[in-house]
Design goal:
The complex is a heterotrimer of chains A (about 180), B (about 180) and C (about 375). Chain A is an all-alpha fold. In chain A, about 70% of the residues lie in helices and about 0% in strands. In chain A, helix 1 runs antiparallel to helix 2 and helix 2 runs antiparallel to helix 3 (about 50-75). Chain B is of the alpha+beta class and about 180 residues long. Chain B has a domain at about 55-175: Alpha-Beta Plaits. The chains are: A mainly alpha (about 180), B alpha+beta (about 180), C mainly alpha (about 375). The structure holds iron/sulfur cluster (SF4) (2 copies).
Amino acid sequence: MSTDIFFYLFAAITAGSALAVVLCKNTVAAALSLLVSLVGVAALFILLDAFLLAALMVFVYAGAVVALFLFIVMLIDTYGGTRKPFKKGTIVASGFALALLVTGLATLAQRGALATPEFAGNAAPLVPVGASLRAYGEQLFTTYLLPVQIVGFLLLIAMLGVIVLSKKFEGLEDVK
Amino acid sequence: MAVIQVERKPLSLLERTYIPQIVGGLRTTLRHFFKPNVTLQYPEQRPEISKNYRGVPTLVMDPNGREKCVSCQLCEFVCPPKAIRITPGEIAADSPNAHVEKAPQAFDIDMLRCIYCGLCQEVCPEEAIWLQNQFSMSGYTRAEMVNNKAKLYELGGTLPDPHLKWDHKKAAAEHGNGH
Amino acid sequence: MDFSFYFDLPLWLRLVLQGTAVILVLFPIAAACSMAERKISAWLQGRPGPNRTLPPLLAWVPGIWVLQKLGIFQLAADGGKFVFKEDPVPGHVNKLYFIAAPILAMIPALTTVVVVPFGAYLDSAGKIVPLVLANVDIGLLAVFAVSSLGVYAVILAGWASNSKYPFLGGVRASAQLISYELSMTLSVLPVFLWINAPGGQGTLSLFDVVQFQSQPGFWGGAWFVFTMPLSAFIFLVALFAETNRQPFDMPESESDLVGGFHTEYGAFKWSLFFVAEYCHMVIGSAVFILLFFGGWNPLPWVTLTDTVQALAHIIPVATHPLFMGILGISIFLVKICFSIFFFMWVRWTLPRFRYDQVMNIGWKQLLPLSIANLIAYTIGIALLQK
Ligand code: SF4
Ligand code: SF4
């Protein structure tokens, strides 16, 4: 089946470049691997007939976010920096994350497949939600309204944080 | 002198959008688009060159077709970058101009060296070398850039100079009062 | 004439043929743009421009001087030169990325054309069918998505060149393109709010936008440039910035960055960047025309279908799909040519902005303006469509 071949191809590209993001010493190369990985994910979406999600993925993440990454990476010039040894907390946290991942994968292998998630309202959606604008929008504003609001709120907080961090409070004596 | 303070007017809202200015600019450029060209088709059409222009140094003849240069070599000595090389020669005894005695056998100006300073023209006692309105010199080899005598006369042409001092001298000598 | 044999071909073969045809048209247009650029600059500056090149073999052809004066052979000579010239790769560059950058520039430039419709015809049932490689529902989003990848070519070129000027060009490009992408996206939203009436299927297809502009009646036939002039203006300004055209050509900016991101490039790789830039220009103009200038409709309130039906009284073949398709494509191409002329016209009219001005215009003027525009139209449309 050609779809299967494409799936394995793009899955390999996605996973491989995701690995390269972590392993590349050169930050620009790492950011570019991230780009390839994101495009690979978009391709997987296309295989699932979720064209809208694919386009959004490329537009937002590959088109804008990674470009910003590159912009920052180039501005702060990360060549030749010596890496500090890992802190203890980091090691513990990553060990914990690894354990979680392994458990998850083991469970998956044991069960043989992921449980099909229940879609709200209709038992078997024929058109994937990510394919048409209308379906996607409707889901966003009905079923997933709360998560969307929460994520939006998080982003707002992050933005405020950036403003606070980057602004110099010159008028305030006590802050100094 | 009175100093006039000019009030700098704040830009109006319309001016701050740039749009009227941009439209005005576009109109100006569009007008130029339809105007006739101001350029010349160079090698075929040549620009008018002023009479005072001092271009490539050339050698000139007098109205009787005698070469004016007497190969005194003053220009060769004065030329700052040593662009001129002259081989002096005798004028044959049977020539009508035999009384002038000398004329250059060879006369080369290396245009890769010449700096168009005009000193050769200034120093020449015979008014034989002139910087004229030839402004374009080009060639494919170094050798092509050296103007030899024939080329120099071809570029130079005739100087419409009515004095003809050597002819007067000859006439005077024939009347017996030459010194 | 019967074209059913064409539709009997396997789908993949038809797609390959159509794709090749489109690229074969797009590529020469992009190349011709480079000559148009030189000629139009020349004419705007009161000089004739390249008008001498003529292959001696063709000199006997009567009337060939017209082509000679238009610089057509100069174009061919330049193209040939790019192919045969030595292609230098400086020693200090990052080879892999240095070579990948111009290729990366070409990919988005040629991919976006897939979802751009360029004409329409009436099929035998009297239904209007778009001429497009892939008539997908998310048309405009796909154009935006793919063309936003074009920035990586510039960034990569700047970074891989490993020298100061290209690097600055690359950094500028990344900041500028992101800044203007926002306003561009926001400026087209009113158009889609307007055409997606409540209860409809919801579409981002460019073909539907054109169809919406070719309805009967005063409001139906009005191009969006009349109903949404501010959106059109914002889109146009952002388009100039996105295609790196003057007055926004920060990444190149010859006066302060030598050649910008392509300073270290030469010969064929350099020319790839330029073909890509012109492709972006062509596609950008095409999208602009589809959105705001009625696509292949010849005049506002006069649709292609009307024209063809009026012509059918004079020449009976007018309603033939082939004739109608070619007519539509020609009208569309004429509009694109004018738009490209406008790009070049502006180039020789406005001085280049300073970098901080570019950022100011993008973030402090264009973005608030486009947000205000969006809100105003949202309220207006909500009231109108209630
Ligand atoms: S050109 Fe004049 S200065 Fe030079 S050698 Fe001849 S006569 Fe003398
Ligand atoms: S113009 Fe000056 S440099 Fe040229 S030949 Fe005469 S003296 Fe020499």
